[in-house]
Write the structure tokens for this entry.
Amino acid sequence: MPDVEFTNLFVVALIALLAPLLLGLAPRLRVPAVVLEIVAGIVVGPHGLGLVEVDLPLQIVSLLGLGFLLFLAGLEIDVHRLRGQILRLAVLGYLVTLALGTAAGAGFDAIGWVQSPLLLAVTLSATSLGLVVPVLKDAGQAEGAVGQFTIAAASVADFAAVLLLSLVFSTEGGSPGERIIMVGLFTLLVVVAGIVVATAGRSQRIGGVLVRLQDTTAEIRVRAAVVLLVAFVALAEQFGLETILGAFLAGAVVGLVDRDSTSHPRFRIKLEALGYGFLIPVFFVTSGLRLDLGGLVDDPAALARVPLFLAALLVVRGVPALLAIRTLGTRSSVAVALLQATSLPFIVTATQIGVETGLMAPVTAAALVCAGLLSVLVFPAVALLLLKQPAEVRQPGRS
């Protein structure tokens, strides 16, 4: 065996176990496990009690967790929902988000809080689909107008945010123009790969083998999905793009090919078990280990960034929801605004890239992550209360 210690990975895995377990023992405490995972990482990390360090095994598993997080986010996208007026409003809403985000970034840049207004705009522009969908299901709104609009808007925002982050702020180098060409070529290869995978899946011979092996120790569908994920990540790296783009598109391709899941209903459950059961919690705990709150705690002026970034997140992602106010009504639109402003995983990813590229100070990254934590704690809870209230009654003849 190589001379590698797994003590730090054990502690992180233990935190990943205890976080949801504690929440399960206190059901009234409606806090997403991801919040406890990041906070616990901060407490035991180098900038807290100093009990855990980010060593090589932890770095590797955390990187795999990030890839699987983006893969499952891409898997959530249902292209069949993205059509007609919903798609137009979602795209228009994201353009409004970018405009508001750039304006907010310019304001924060003017007072010296950020180095790149556009990076801040992109960081604030995503919505956490994985956190929003359960809220909609709890409220019985996932298949209704509110759920359809929210999921479509979040899907467009997530895809566009990942794409922009890869195009403009990649750590792999190269000019934006070169990266646009690389993205075009990469997308072409992704489309070809998707067609090949879909064609192979329709083959009776191959389909029969897949059905025979899918629930054996071969777990053939899970292995195929992992191969596609690693292939797209490696391909994105070869093209000089962010690996998160490859992971996200791999999930989108698998989701598109897997739209008819009658022959393998447990496929996605198995993927989520692999991701959420081990890899993704390690990523979140490790993100907490890397987060230095010292600058925020020591400087009251720096701490003031957190509520202002939270307000910016609500404005940048929440205001575009008002585009649907005539269709959804005022209260439902406010609930959608709160759900759209719920964001954490992408903020964690974007701030890490910002710090690596020197475009974001660590104290700013910490403040943004804290704002994301608060958005996850506050916004879905308020939205759920609004959605559980009786539906608005419109008077005849009124729009």
